[in-house]
Amino acid sequence: MLGRSNVVGKPMAFLLLQKGPGGDATVTVCHSATRDAAALCREADILIAAIGRPEHVRGEWIKPGAVVIDVGIHKRADGSLCGDVNHAEAAEVASLITPVPGGVGPMTVAMLLRNTLQAARLSVA
């Protein structure tokens, strides 16, 4: 997990650590102050990038065959969007990589709407 925010990094790490299906992962959390984060990222079978820096993760940070989930979204000077991962470089190394835009964004919106609906139902009950 690359990022320690309360919105993505910490919750994702805790989800992956849960006991049982979908969990039981060995999780390493790196952040902006981690020394040699690139070396730690190169050990990951699944790299989730939510560091908040445009195209910060380079291809050489990625273990060959790893799955890369890019949570970041940033607007470049020309108006185009990019993630926290340099997609072109990562695609050369990773077995799979989420696109930006269109990767985790739609799922994030769907889950926010689901949680809002659940909160509304609970407040009425």
Structural overview:
This protein is α/β, with parallel strands linked by helices. Helices cover 33% and strands 11% of the residues. The protein contains four helices and five strands. A three-stranded parallel sheet has the order 1-2-5, covered by helices on one side. A two-stranded antiparallel sheet has the order 3-4. Strand 3 and strand 4 form a beta hairpin. The longest helix is centred in the C-terminal third of the chain and has 20 residues. The radius of gyration is 16 Å and the shape is globular. It starts with 8 loop residues before the first helix and ends with a helix. The mean pLDDT is 93.
How do the strands and helices of this protein lay out in sequence?
Layout: H1 9-17, H2 37-41, E1 46-49, E2 67-70, E3 74-75, E4 81-82, H3 87-93, E5 96-97, H4 105-124
Parallel strand pairs: 1-2, 2-5
Antiparallel strand pairs: 3-4
Give a summary of the structure in a few sentences.
The chain has 125 residues and is an alpha/beta fold.
Number of strands: 5
Reported for the largest beta sheet, the result is:
3 strands, parallel
Share of helix, binned: 25-40%
- State the secondary-structure class: alpha/beta
Task: Give helix and strand order, one letter per element, not per position.
Answer: HHEEEEHEH
Q: What distinguishing features does this structure have?
A:
3-stranded parallel β-sheet, two-stranded antiparallel ribbon, 33% helix, globular
